Here is the input.
Amino acid sequence: MTTGYQPFLVASQRTGVSLGMDPWLIPQDAYVQAINGYNFRGVLKKRDGYSWFDSVPHTLPGIYQNIGGITNGPNSIVTMTVPHGIVTPTFNVRFNGVTGLPSPGSLPDINGQMWVATVTGANTYTINNAQAFGGAYVGGTGTASYFPHLPVVCIAVWIDEQNASTLMVLDTRRASIFDGTVECLIPMGVTDQFTGAETDLFSWENYRGKIYFTNNKDSMFVYGNGGTFLITAGLQAFLPQYNGANAVTKCLLIKAIGSKLCLFNTQENGVELFTRIRWCQDGQEPYPGTGVGNVWDQITPGRGYFADVLDTSYILSLAKFQTNTFIFCRGQQFGTVYEMRPISDPRYAFAFVSVGTTRNFGSTFGTIVIDKIVTTVGDSGLIMTDGNNVSRYDDKIPSFVLDDMDLENMNRCFGQRNDRLWQTWLLYPSSGGTGRNDGVLVYNYQDSAWSKYTMDLSCLGTIVYPRADPKASDYDGNMLPDWACKDFGDASWASTLQSQAPFLMGGDYEGNLWWMDTGGGDAADRIAYNDPADDGQPIDFKLVSRQWFPYAKEGKSSQFGFVDLLVDGDVDTDVSVGFSIDNQSAPYATTSFTPVPFENILVAQIQNITLGNPTLIYAPDHQITTGDVLYVYGVQGTTQLNDNFYTATVIDSQNISLNVDSTTFSAYISGGQLSNQGLNQTPFWTRIYAGQTGVFHQMEFNNSGVDEDFSIHALILWMKPTGRIYR
Amino acid sequence: MTLPININLPASEDPYLRNLTYALATYLQQANYEANGTYVVLPVPNQSWAFISGSTVVGSGNYTNSTLVAQRSNNVITVWFDITWAAHTGTGNLLVNLPYSAQFVAQYPYIGVIEASNVIFTAGRTYLVGNLLPNTNTIEIRQCGSGVASLALPLPVAGTLRGSITYAGQRSN
Here is the structure.
């Protein structure tokens, strides 16, 4: 079969969104498109999905605390003492602080659970508890929340004075905070506090036990228990004053630098000061920041002061870098990066050094720190600085910003590290899109590899895994993602199960918060009580190779005989592969394959299983002999048999037995294969035939599905030289 | 000599050398910044500066042709000033406000020279010195004379002071 064909290895895998180079055989950068796939340590993988974590709750529009009573149910009737204010027929409701109503059996606790509520009157609604609660409603200071589904504009982590971390999520109107007791977000405040649009994302910072927020639209806000002033009743407005009534009314960015809380691009006394940086006294409580001689006082030596970054017109973004801070400033034509460095002067507490001038910058929140470099979004390319100079780092995808991004909405870009996979994620609005972020540019900073995801997310955040001691029982609850058993076999999941492990979260335009890189589908949810488990939407994976030209040195066209793929196995995955030649858009051949070992692995199809000891298998026309060691996979129902080896004893030509006691296993439903090779012994080689002759050869892989994993470790293209390169 | 601040060393493609270059440039810039120090001229244009205040009632005054210059090099600060005021509403002793505070010490070692015009001395006192109170940014003007204890100078409604002082300043953390 391989007569005359010569192998061309493509490994390790590394992909670019577009190399912008002529067709050629470039082993590592072998692809021009990787959609919904990523590169990790030389392996190209279809990405995981994302799963629902929670939605941002608001207190009911009516007076939220006036729960007059809740009947035991089933379908408990909730009576508010004043109109609840909900105008839709149904809504999701969640209670906190309700006492009584103990939950029997499998019925969840009344508190912390999202219920489907049906409005029955101005003051009443029912919830969908299928069973009655085990006791009467007692009362208490319970609150009822609903979910208005406004865009998420901030995912923050508040670090208190005891160094404990707490998730806070803000939508365009209100804030919410994670409650570890009921394990969900609970509303902060009973009225709208913000007026910004979905583009008014929040900058936030922890400083001395409090967390500070700003959206450059409203006043700044503060929350926390550090210092003298304890703030426990929701976010408080923060309007620092310096010297009398002079006040900073808002700012674009807020960061603690050199033991000082610094405000960037401020509005002071109603005047926009786009280049202003104002800071408070070293290590002092900056809130409330009012009164004579407070920490923002700019006259008394050693208190606060300010600086204006010269030679520029607008502070757009910043990033902490080692002990310094990079400030990205927009100019009339060019952008400049300044380094802001703490010095010993107690008055002018920072020195500003120009690192370099480059193309203008286009995004406030698209800036990402990657250890020794900082990247940001320029209005014609992606830019990095390491403090030595400023340059582009998108040399493999030079046209990405201009071709793929919606330049009018570039400021929506949002960057975040995803350290579990050594990636940075840059949310961006795509050209021709709705103006909202609908794509993710993924950059593997170890391999310098790029790919794109399709996701509609407004912002990102990294949180620590919020459970102290995760247990298996956690994984079928309401709060956790749609875990598939196979996920636990993936080495990349190891850190997920550790308490305090960092985890990437995404917020969307519908008020939802998602675990990223979890589950086999997108937007998998199990939001409310009795909602059917949802594995999510299919992930559309697409991988397009370069136009390979294997006999370039010989000046010959070639026949593409077949390709050997080193892949991980997944019997549920169906991959379509198209082959095309010489710039032809339509493939000359399309085939599909399931990533299983290529030859002689399937011994028999299982058609029935009788539980017992031993386990009886009905497998017509099998070719098994007694003593064969067989691998079982793909069984529906009796899934406990899957992915294990057993020794077979032949009963007759239709039946065998396996040396396993399946008495307590689940009943058989359908499917299943017996193999002489374990699919868990991955990766393994599989083969696909092509056959056409041409100068340039191109392959396209497509897969769309839920829980369909696919990864390529290497390819070997089998080619043989044929005729001339011109016709 | 003003030492250079914008130091652009050639950067290698090698990651280690780039880190080294950045560290070296940072070190040089930081050292030069500290050596060059800060030069402050008060009042800053479009802003006021309360040069003089009273120790009992701070008060305020009208300043004409007044300036204060401070040079901070590392934590050594030298201040020169020439202040003329009128219609000051403060009471108590005369204090001159500086842009930097002095290091705390137990005694009163920060002494500067003062020239005064149209200021009436208390009997027995014949010359003035400026005594920068430790851990503050205020100079107390004291009257001295032969065989008598020094005495703080009461704040006159109007007057002129010129002087200079060098002291150890405080550092930002």
User: Anything to note?
Assistant: Chain B touches chain A through 34 residues (CB under 8 Å). The mean pLDDT of chain B is 92.
